[in-house]
Automatic annotation (TrEMBL):
<dbReference type="InterPro" id="IPR011032">
    <property type="entry name" value="GroES-like_sf"/>
</dbReference>
<dbReference type="GO" id="GO:0016491">
    <property type="term" value="F:oxidoreductase activity"/>
</dbReference>
<feature type="domain" description="Enoyl reductase (ER)">
    <location>
        <begin position="13"/>
        <end position="325"/>
    </location>
</feature>
<dbReference type="InterPro" id="IPR002364">
    <property type="entry name" value="Quin_OxRdtase/zeta-crystal_CS"/>
</dbReference>
<dbReference type="Pfam" id="PF08240">
    <property type="entry name" value="ADH_N"/>
</dbReference>
<dbReference type="GO" id="GO:0008270">
    <property type="term" value="F:zinc ion binding"/>
</dbReference>
<dbReference type="InterPro" id="IPR051397">
    <property type="entry name" value="Zn-ADH-like_protein"/>
</dbReference>
<dbReference type="InterPro" id="IPR020843">
    <property type="entry name" value="ER"/>
</dbReference>
<protein>
    <submittedName>
        <fullName>NADPH:quinone oxidoreductase family protein</fullName>
    </submittedName>
</protein>
<dbReference type="InterPro" id="IPR013149">
    <property type="entry name" value="ADH-like_C"/>
</dbReference>
<dbReference type="Pfam" id="PF00107">
    <property type="entry name" value="ADH_zinc_N"/>
</dbReference>
<dbReference type="InterPro" id="IPR013154">
    <property type="entry name" value="ADH-like_N"/>
</dbReference>
<dbReference type="InterPro" id="IPR036291">
    <property type="entry name" value="NAD(P)-bd_dom_sf"/>
</dbReference>
Length: 332
């Protein structure tokens, strides 16, 4: 089968190589899936660099999420049958940037009929993270104000849609005019281009000085530091990641004075510690998708030949929405 493989760590454009390899066989509690669509993600670049929290043995195939059809079922796996259309996380080192990928059965879910393969493939990481962050961790309530950083990216765009579906007023922070238009398309009530405007003042204006009830931060660095200037009394800041490259050191005395909470979110841990919560989140997301409340924004559908270049652009923050690979016939 065809697959992109990493034999030495480095930048995606330099270390990803297209190869022919044997198709893996599903082990106990695993399923083998013919990949029909696989989104690119920032963690894919980190995997290539050897900087991700999971470090699969070399050589490996990256690609953390997918949609596809089950082609074989391993011993003890009974939730899915051959031919079922599923979405979820690939089981590294046999990632989704290949014709076939392995999945642990408990990390696979039925793909919603209301979404095509590319959209379904993008429903896992970003939307599950958003659901757990906004509902499980922050307890977002209707009528509250939600501030989303990097709102035009894969994780941020999901949070914007989920915030609107929850009845919140959503303030989206982006970088650049193109990303601002994307955030408006997603349904954000207020869009702030950080390259020209101050999101702190924008939040204070929208809330009459009260501040944002929930802040969703996948960026870190200065975004977090500035967020503490516009968090509401008893507000919640959800730490999703550090795409900005800097891990901030919070002033805990400031959190004490304003009575706000800083909440960490490691979504992947829920698969091990509370898998029932992950299944419930998927069920809720399926309902929202069927109702039309959420739909992954697919900005580009590319052939798998475009993987190295596209992952490089994603890592540089040069994309909007989701970039999904859905064909081995070449870039479209």
């Amino acid at each position: 089968m065809k697959a992109w493989r990493v034999r030495a760590h480095g930048e995606p454009g330099e270390v990803l190589r297209a190869e022919e390899k044997e198709c893996p066989l599903p082990g106990p509690q695993q399923i083998l899936v013919r990949v029909t669509a696989a989104p690119g993600n920032f963690p894919d670049a980190m995997l290539c660099r050897g900087e991700y929290q999971i470090k699969p043995p070399l050589p490996f195939t990256p690609g953390v999420e997918l949609c596809g059809r089950v082609t074989a079922v391993g011993e003890g796996a009974g939730r899915f049958a051959v031919g079922d259309r599923v979405l979820g996380l690939a089981e590294l080192p046999h990632g989704s940037f290949a014709e076939f990928a392995l999945m642990s059965e408990h990390r696979a879910f039925p793909a919603p009929e209301s979404l095509d393969d590319a959209e379904s493939a993008a429903l896992t990481l970003g939307y599950q993270t958003g659901w757990m962050g906004l509902h499980r961790r922050a307890g977002l309530r209707p009528g509250e104000t939600l501030l989303v950083h990097a709102a035009a990216g894969g994780v941020g765009s999901a949070a914007v849609q989920l915030g609107k579906a929850a009845g919140a007023t959503v303030v989206a922070v982006v970088g650049g005019a193109v990303k601002a238009e994307t955030a408006r398309w997603l349904g954000a009530d207020v869009v702030v281009d950080r390259s020209t405007d101050d999101f702190v003042e924008a939040v204070k204006t929208v809330t009459n000085g009260r501040g944002a009830d929930v802040i969703y931060d996948p960026v870190g660095g200065a975004a977090f530091t500035r967020s503490t200037k516009c968090i509401a009394f008893e507000g919640r800041i959800v730490i999703v990641g550090f795409a900005g490259g800097i891990i901030p050191s919070p002033r805990l005395n400031h959190a004490l004075i304003k009575n706000y909470s800083i909440l960490g979110l490691h979504w992947g841990l829920y698969h091990e510690r509370d898998p029932a919560a992950v299944r419930k989140a998927h069920e809720e997301l399926t309902v929202l998708a069927d109702r039309g409340n959420v739909r992954p924004l697919i900005s580009k559908r590319l052939g798998f030949s475009a993987v190295p270049e596209a992952i490089t652009r994603i890592a540089a923050g040069a994309t909007v929405g989701r970039v999904v690979f859905d064909s081995w016939e070449g870039a479209e």
